[in-house]
Structure prediction request, 680 residues.
Amino acid sequence: MKHITLKDLAKQLGLSTATVSKALKNYPDVSDETKKSVQDLARELNYEPNSFALGLRSKESKIIGVIIPTMIHYFFSSVLDAIFKEAEQRNYMVIVMQSNEEYCNEKKQVDLLLNKGVDGILISLSNKTNDFKHLQKIIDYDIPLVLFDKIAKLVNCSKVFIDDKKAAYEAVSYLISKGYKRIAHFRGDLNPQNSIDRFLGYKKALEDHGITFDPSLVYLCDNNSDFSDGYSSAKQILLDHGDNVDAIFTVNDLMAIGAINYFNEKGIKIPEQIALFGFSNWFMASVITPSLSSIDQNAYQMGKKSIEILFEEILSKKSNKPFTHKKIVIDTELVIRNSC
Amino acid sequence: MKHITLKDLAKQLGLSTATVSKALKNYPDVSDETKKSVQDLARELNYEPNSFALGLRSKESKIIGVIIPTMIHYFFSSVLDAIFKEAEQRNYMVIVMQSNEEYCNEKKQVDLLLNKGVDGILISLSNKTNDFKHLQKIIDYDIPLVLFDKIAKLVNCSKVFIDDKKAAYEAVSYLISKGYKRIAHFRGDLNPQNSIDRFLGYKKALEDHGITFDPSLVYLCDNNSDFSDGYSSAKQILLDHGDNVDAIFTVNDLMAIGAINYFNEKGIKIPEQIALFGFSNWFMASVITPSLSSIDQNAYQMGKKSIEILFEEILSKKSNKPFTHKKIVIDTELVIRNSC
Prediction:
């Protein structure tokens, strides 16, 4: 008797092999009606899905896909550094793609990686991503997925991130403990979770220390060019508030460095006239004048943990063992320098 | 009659299929004796190598491999940014590997990429690479190869690079035109061509302007940690020469920034007491105090050109057209700031 293949089923039913395969695996994007007709025919012809699936499963690509928002970024370079080192130790190769902070790129890149048959995917979401169907697709295809740094809380996969709210809270509390009272915030894009959480941490620190939150001290910097956003917001804050502001907590270091450049140009003394606190602890923060206090995000550790968990899931899948998704919170650290 | 496969030949001869495949393609790393025995048997059994080879050839992976020395580097991030954008436009994916400036890593990575069947390879060589057999292997396998930035002059492939000697010559000539006479050089590793060329450009500029070259003003910084190399060499040069040195030309920006940090700490005024000139024009150079004069290497343009040429060769190969290797020199530019 001829061995029945997926193709035979597909031909008899006038469907694509992909649809037949999905129907057999009970994927959600195939209608119940189609599923029934496929499964009925498979039973009738004694199709053996297990041996097929097994064949597919053993065909490892030994490739991991990584999607990051941008390449020219100290944080992501450090994350990639860790990912490359860990992958290489396991004889895996890494395809890297950058979304350029665009959802449509990210969506397309997920499809490319799925088509290429990668063994697992790591993603740090773009600032524009607020639809997660492409992530659900990875899960539906049974490909291990780990989100890191810029994550989506509701997607059912492993996640590695920092506690942005807590880190921001600690930085602003430190400023308050040093006597600063009129503390402004240069915040990032409205969409990404880490930008929201850093803002909330800032606000909570003020409130917990009895300082009334003043919305006019929050500057939205969303031009995707952090340095010049910081520079122009520094200019604006002096126009708006004069010397009635004594510190700025920025959503990232580059924004703080933009502000420092403006203040240095204008001869405004840091930290005497205005203090600054950044976020991310880029290498640059340690070498500018004055050196910038910041929050170290432990980028290398984040990359290492992310790929370790991904490999755990790949291994579990290979040996048909259950895997429980993990949520790992990477510790952050205040790094105090001369800017406050 | 059964169709004769590579495996059949390999089995009969007690060789690996890889060796048989190479013997049939006349690869140089198989002995003449083995080649003869394989080719004789292939003739005897009517093995059809052409259809086999043809099958292999049409199987594009749509993947490009890139090997860079290090990930955490503004220059390479910018190069990769360009490579990703150009690859994506052509629906290609990019596997990135970092050699960590180690020849043995680079060699292993070339093998991994060849085994994966990538359609082309881009490499910027590690500082330790001075054996080029692994590059010759890529060429022997008929896989398009482009070397960029850190190249090997003698390898027969396309190359994209800057004229390091000319750029260094221009920077040092500029310093001389500004009245600096005792100009030191913090040079990089002895091995890489770009480090050698920058040193030669420095030396020639001095000589052409009637300044005697003083070897005691050249500091070798080869600890692979540019910032601290620059910092400690700055300390050393003051111990060795006191104020009998008025400018330093460094092989890269990070080294200059290390030196600036030391001088700032010691209250030594830049450029009044000592001037600095970097190389590479990292973003950081524009935001430190004082801002650093440097040579812009046009990293994005280098990445773009490199992958464009790679695609030209891939396309020529696909359509069986001859391809002449290219040597592209990317223009550099002096960027004058406050450090001199």
About this structure: The CA atoms of residues 125 and 151 of chain B lie 6 Å apart. Chain B touches chain A at residues 62-63, 70-74, 77-78, 80-81, 84, 88, 91, 93-98, 105, 112-113, 116, 227, 257, 260-261, 264, 283-284, 287-289 (CB under 8 Å). Chain B is about 45% helix and 15% strand. Residues 50-58 of chain B have pLDDT under 50 and may be disordered.
